[in-house]
Amino acid sequence: MTSIKEQAAISRLLSFLQDWDNAGKVARSHILDNFIKTNQGKTSPELEQEFSQGASLFLVRLTTWLRLIYMTGSCLDKLLQSIGIFLSAVSSNRYLIEFLEVGGVLTLLEILGLEEIKEEDKKESIKLLQVIANYGRKYKELICESYGVRSIAEFLAKSKSEETQEEVQVLLDSLVHGNPKYQNQVYKGLIALLPCASPKAQQLSLQTLRTAQSIIGTTHPSIVECVLKVLRTMHLEVQYEVGFEQAVMKEQLAKCILTPARWKRRQTCAWTLPEAHFSHVASRWQSRGSEDPELGLGFPKALGAKKLPQIQQDCGVASPASPTHTLHGKKVLGKVQEGDGGKRKRLGSRGSLLAWWGRGRLEHQASPGPLPFNSHRADQDLVNYDVCQALLKGLVELLIPSVRETRKLQPKIPSDSLVPQLTAHLPVFLQQAAAAKAIGVLARSNTSIAEEMLHLRVVHSLLAAMGNSDHCNSQRQASLTLEYFVQMFPVVEENVRRSMGEELYQLFLSNAEDLYMKIDSIQADILAANKVNVSKVLHQSGVPRSNTTFYLEAHDKDQLDYISFFQKEDMEGKE
């Protein structure tokens, strides 16, 4: 038999439920206000005690009313908050199952697509979906199986409230974690959001994409075109996120350009440097007074006072006193003898002569250093190589806007020659400036990427962008990026000097960042109409892409003969 207290509690519960059943919209709104105020943050046992072990009876009334009125939007925010109290309570698994059994997830997703529903009501729906997703993988899969990714992504693109959009980002981030079955679906949904008209949605999508990219490990081909189109935006916060997205892809780009076959040759090949070549590289680094982390061996200012023999000894370069050295900790067995013109010829192994100063690192035998990049997954297909090539090629192509794009953005009515044309804010020129900056970031981050872009005629395109007098930021960004290529690769320096002419080239060297303010229209036309083709020069020299850097530092005929000798020897060895 029940006690008097239990009977009184049951009587109060029945009275409360009867009041709810008989109440209209206004009365029910007051009931919900009191419920939210008195039960916020309570646990499941506390709710059961409040409702005399009959809390589920009130929850089922709330879910039933939700399905009846969600299309009208009456008291929807309070109703969703009340359901949220049940679902977010500690030890509330029973409430969650009861809510899901009546189609709660489908109802919440449908609310997001209704135009007549207020933004605040949709925000509460997103919060409930967050609570459900936080229960674990099974519930994340349930949301995705209910076409939740598409509904959530569409709502993010159409939402006008930044606070609501940030809540959506939290939900998408939750769905991409711990959801291996549908994480690719979320990843593709984020990519589909990039072309949307909402800058905030683009920014949040790019932020979440960085996380999704690291979780999934592979790159979808469609991301290249979408990311490049986002570069047209006039919103700096979106440009900032695009830069971070490129930074995430930076390491993957390096891994896919340096293929496993090249990495194997990089570890096993034996090579030596001519003394003239070593002196040239040492002098260049001494003048810079810096150390590039991508080059295995740099020359900081502290080495500037050392003499060449001492530097060679510190770096492990072969000398009469030490006829052997190591490459990445492996002993090189070939002997070295002096040849005509001060060249050094290698005897012994006929392995491929892979790289110059940046692609291989000479290390002292007693202290082998670590590998230059994390290669434990280099043999896996982390990134589609075509995607990497497409990204680099797309960035270079954006430096020279097509005639069709520029004409499409011109005014339809005749323009007055006395009125300046405001073309500086054309999206295509914003895209051009952003592409020039992105190329500089990627090139500085990895020498292999810079070499790959030389074959895509990046120098020609950067010079053309420097001649775009309609957009000063394009000129500035292109000039800064070209300055790096000129400093890094002598073959670029030679061709740029020849194309610019001595006067303009010296002006460029003096201050590349402010060059656009000092050139006249004739000099701008010279830059825009340049015929520089470094890729052709490399091709005519018979240097394949994998050996690009080997040619880049060869100034004189002796060094070119030196390179050709070992390339010919390598071909004879294969025969």
Task: Please sum up the structure shown.
By secondary structure, the protein is mostly helical.
Question: What is the element layout, followed by pairings?
Answer:
Elements: H1 4-22, H2 25-39, H3 44-50, H4 55-69, H5 76-87, H6 93-101, H7 104-112, H8 119-133, H9 137-145, H10 148-158, H11 162-176, H12 183-193, H13 199-216, H14 222-230, H15 236-257, H16 260-268, H17 275-288, H18 308-315, E1 326-327, E2 330-331, E3 336-338, E4 344-346, E5 362-363, H19 385-397, H20 403-408, H21 427-445, H22 447-454, H23 458-466, H24 472-488, H25 490-500, H26 502-510, H27 521-528, H28 534-540, H29 548-552, H30 557-574
Antiparallel strand pairs: 1-2, 1-5, 3-4
Describe it.
The protein has 575 residues and is mainly α. The protein has 30 helices and five strands. It has a three-stranded antiparallel beta sheet with strand order 2-1-5, with no helix packed on it. The protein has a two-stranded antiparallel ribbon with strand order 3-4. α8 runs parallel beside α11. The chain is elongated. The N and C termini lie far apart (100 Å).
Query: What is the name of the CATH class of the largest domain?
Result: Mainly Alpha
Give Rg in angstroms: 33 Å
What is the domain tally?
A: 3
Name given to the CATH homologous superfamily of the largest domain: Leucine-rich Repeat Variant
* Sheet with most strands: strand arrangement: 2-1-5
Residue stretches low in confidence (pLDDT < 50, at least 5 long) are 258-282, 284-385, 417-422, 546-571
CATH architecture term of the largest domain: Alpha Horseshoe
Write down the overall geometry.
elongated
Indicate the mean pLDDT: 74
Structural class of the helix and strand makeup? mainly alpha
**CATH-defined fold name of the largest domain:** Leucine-rich Repeat Variant
Quote the distance from N terminus to C terminus. 100 Å
How large is the share of residues in beta strands? under 5%
Total beta-strand segments: 5
- Tell me the quaternary state: single chain
Helix content: 55-70%
* Main beta-sheet strand count, sense and barrel state: 3 strands, antiparallel
